[in-house]
Amino acid sequence: MRNELIQFTKMIAAVIIKIAFYSLLIIANGETSQKDSSAKCGALNRRRPKRIVDGNEVPNPNPYPWTVFLVTTYRKETGESQKLFCAGSIIQPTFILTVAHCIPPNTERLHIYYGSSVDLNDPSTHNIISAIRWYIHPNYNYYVESTWEHDIAIIEVKQGSIDFENDQVGQICLPEDHINTDGQEMITAGYGNPQRYGASYRNPRLREATVYGVNSTFFGLPNHVNGSITAVGFNGFLSFYDIGDPLMLERNGVWTLVGVARYICLNNESQNCDPRAPMLFTRVSNYLDWIILTIINPHINYSDILDTFNHLEGETSSRD
């Protein structure tokens, strides 16, 4: 009787935790507050063309109002100051999602460029704000470049620093569950220039490209790629400065962030990207629990909570 009571308690606890998690996901996607324009996720600023040719620059206003440009300043091991250029996506009024290796160890400051018509060469087209904190996934190891597993990070900005109403900025929806991206047509957008290499050759305007999800086994990629999203592009491709770009999927007029660009040109070590090379994206749905819990209270260590959740859920499933 005692063992049955313990098992029943664990089952109820697992159900409560799961309900609480999905409730937090609904809040994160803004479905509970339609009065606040910033709370509506996944809505374009304007209608995008049906076909995107050669990775064109996006028209103004930027149809993907959640895309941001990131400039990270950090200290190398030699003590030299270095800048790193990446992209990110607004997922909440004060939180931006990117990949962890955009925020190296010894990062000193991080600036976010946002706006409805960002031109990096024209300061009048965008706003620049500073991050107040950033959160790296606890299982990520910056120094193991051969795998870069758990390559995901959250950037926090000050409340109200992003003006959603006047700057035509919005947030993208998080996936509510695993999405099979194999064979799916998706969009990615960023500030990289696939024809050139070097800090001075980043593209000043946002570019977009159509990509298609493929199974990683098709390219014979290593095991650590499993669990990520592999994609290829035919009419435009990413460059080395597209790290952190959103991988977006549209369903019924709502755009969802399914991946974040983590590695470009997997089969090419040269300066220019091969358009046939597969691109690797961190699969956002694999980290929903960490993302949501970090957004709700980033100062709590959730490792034990998540381990307990997985353990309880496993025991509940085994009893079923």
UniProtKB/TrEMBL annotation:
<dbReference type="InterPro" id="IPR043504">
    <property type="entry name" value="Peptidase_S1_PA_chymotrypsin"/>
</dbReference>
<dbReference type="Pfam" id="PF00089">
    <property type="entry name" value="Trypsin"/>
</dbReference>
<dbReference type="InterPro" id="IPR009003">
    <property type="entry name" value="Peptidase_S1_PA"/>
</dbReference>
<feature type="domain" description="Peptidase S1">
    <location>
        <begin position="52"/>
        <end position="296"/>
    </location>
</feature>
<dbReference type="InterPro" id="IPR001254">
    <property type="entry name" value="Trypsin_dom"/>
</dbReference>
<protein>
    <submittedName>
        <fullName>Chymotrypsinogen B-like protein</fullName>
    </submittedName>
</protein>
<dbReference type="GO" id="GO:0006508">
    <property type="term" value="P:proteolysis"/>
</dbReference>
<dbReference type="GO" id="GO:0004252">
    <property type="term" value="F:serine-type endopeptidase activity"/>
</dbReference>
<keyword id="KW-1015">Disulfide bond</keyword>
